[in-house]
Write a structure and sequence with these properties.
Number of strands: 8
Strand content: 25-35%
Structural class: alpha+beta
Shape: elongated
Radius of gyration: 33 Å
Strand order of the largest sheet: 5-2-1-8
Distance between the termini: 111 Å
């Protein structure tokens, strides 16, 4: 008796590839990477990095000039203290040292660490004792770089102020040699 090898049931029709879950699961990883790459590219081109300086060489030269002003402040033994009263909206302080350091107007700069649009520039006129008050309606909770300099910009004091953790800040000119 001979049996026909070709006889039997017809092969069942297989489902198309897109009906299975495994190809979709395998393609999910590269698809996520493509979407993340597009998002990263969008963020890179639409968000400006405010911390990068275009002319870094010129900025480096300015730093050396600032060190000269720090030395002058140290020679004058300058000290300053600032305190912010949020209820009154006032920044009060003193600047003391040798000579006539606190007789002219002072420029007080509160520089926000990451958002330059929040930087604050104030002008203060200290009295004979070096005390001053200036209106400051709202001070954000942040890590501020405080710069106090004379009207002629011949000296400067600087310090980091972590407000509101520190209610006040004391600045002493350090001797830089």
């Amino acid at each position: 008796m001979c049996t026909n090898i070709r006889s039997g049931t017809a092969p069942t029709s297989a489902r198309p590839w897109y009906m299975h879950r495994w190809p979709w699961l395998i393609m999910l990883g590269p698809a996520i990477v493509v979407v993340a790459g597009i998002h990263t590219t969008w963020v890179a081109f639409t968000q400006q990095d405010a911390l990068v300086v275009d002319d870094y060489y010129k900025e480096g030269k300015v730093i050396n000039q600032d060190l000269t002003r720090d030395r002058i402040a140290a020679d004058m033994r300058l000290q300053a203290g600032l305190r912010y009263d949020p209820a009154a909206g006032m920044l009060s302080g003193t600047v003391n040292g040798l000579g006539d350091a606190a007789t002219g107007k002072l420029t007080i700069k509160l520089v926000h660490s990451t958002q330059p649009e929040k930087d604050i520039h104030l002008q203060a006129s200290p009295d004979r004792d070096g005390a001053f008050q200036v209106a400051l309606p709202m001070l954000d909770m942040a890590r501020w770089q405080v710069l106090i300099e004379s009207e002629r910009r011949d000296w400067r004091l600087h310090q980091v102020w972590d407000y509101p953790k520190q209610r006040s800040v004391s600045i002493t000119a350090d001797a830089i040699r």
